[in-house]
Specification:
The chain is an alpha+beta fold. It has one domain. It is 46% helix and 17% strand. The strands form two sheets. A two-stranded antiparallel ribbon has the order 1-2. A two-stranded antiparallel sheet has the order 3-4. A hairpin with a 6-residue loop joins β1 and β2. α1 packs across α6.
Length: 157
């Protein structure tokens, strides 16, 4: 018994048309999803977690202040605001797919997110933000795809 599937070229063409109509720009549902994740990461950093307190020199080296580090496994506690202010997002879309990238350009974000070989335990803030926002991400991505499908159908009439 043989089964022959026909019409694959038409399916691929339709999928390419839908992909071309997915606009993941600044006002898209993809950007909304990205900003939800960014907001969750920032909120986790700004929420205090009890860890070791230690004295630090302020920038410029004249004044001392007390910083409370977060507990290992918790998101890092904010200190200078550098980590929060360097979390950014960008969206992308094209024939190969769509989505968003979220990153922290702070010099110490990788060490905080993953820990170090020298003994700093991980204090993740991006991975939990993504995991905790998964349902919202899927909802917004689905809306973006459905909108593109509707645009594609209108173009065929």
């Amino acid at each position: 018994m043989a089964v022959k599937l026909t019409g694959m070229e038409e399916i691929q063409k339709t999928l390419a048309e839908i992909a071309a109509k997915i606009n993941a720009g600044d006002e898209s549902d993809v950007m909304v999803a990205a900003q939800i994740v960014r907001g969750a990461a920032i909120k986790s950093i700004q929420k205090r977690s009890g860890g070791i307190k230690y004295s630090k020199l302020a920038q410029g080296g004249e004044n001392r202040y007390t910083h409370q580090a977060s507990k290992a496994g918790d998101a890092p506690n904010t200190d200078t605001g550098d980590l929060v202010s360097n979390i950014g997002v960008k969206t992308f879309s094209g024939l190969t797919g769509f989505g968003f990238e979220i990153e922290s350009k702070s010099g110490h974000s990788e060490a905080l997110e993953f820990g170090t070989k020298r003994g700093l335990a991980p204090r993740p803030f991006l991975r939990p933000a993504i995991a905790n926002s998964e349902k919202q991400i899927l909802k917004h991505f689905s809306r973006q795809i459905n909108r593109a499908i509707k645009k594609s159908k209108k173009g065929k009439k």
